[in-house]
Predict the 3D structure of the following.
Amino acid sequence: MKSINIDVMNLIIDEGNTRIKLAVFKDVQLVDLVISNLEDCKEMIDVFIRKYDIKSLIVSSVTDDVNHIVGELAIINKFFLSHETSLPFTNLYETPKTLGVDRMALVAGAWSQFPNQNSLVIDAGTCVTYDFIDKHGHYLGGAISPGLKMRFKSMHFFTKKLPDLEIPSGSVEMIGKSTKQSMESGVLNGMVFEMDGAIAHYQQKFKDVNIILTGGDANSLYKQLKNSIFVNPNFLLEGLNAVLTYQNKNEAKLK
């Protein structure tokens, strides 16, 4: 397979637990992005392929639902991100086959944008994931915890009287003066404490660490965090683009 020219448009397909993101990159520049569901995904992919003359694409799916759609596309240069995919870092996870493809992409993005540096990527989505790669390019692992919506839903589901609440749009007071406010404080402020504690641990152990916050709930959290962080809602897409770019280089084929 020949290496592609960097001016060729890359199509990135990211299927999460609740939605599908379709993005087009020219080199490292994001030029188009839509959010779709499974029913409309095929039509949107066809639109992007025609509009940008897509010759190369990558799929990251935590459900595998979109894979059959992509499998039918007449594009030779396509990749399905998995534990068998060659990556630009050394994976030291003890159970690599269970490592989520979204976490692989986030680490690839960190190494691509911050090479030879320690980086912690926090993805605040359905679950919150913490992934650390050291300055030597060694992915060491991280942590997984319930996301904001999951925390609210679990309190409602496992109790008889606590209400089913939505995620607040802004910061909340520490001392809740009603049941609603108390739940919001427990979830939002509890998440902030968790993140600040995790960040402090990595900074103490590894000194200089880049902190990247991404995911659907990043905007609900970053202003309350004490630490200096990079907030990038499209970081996963950028990581997938980095993996695809790496696949199209000889390094990936020789690794």
Q: What stands out?
A: The chain is about 35% helix and 25% strand. Residues 1-80 form a domain with the Nucleotidyltransferase; domain 5 fold (CATH 3.30.420.40). The chain has a mean pLDDT of 91.
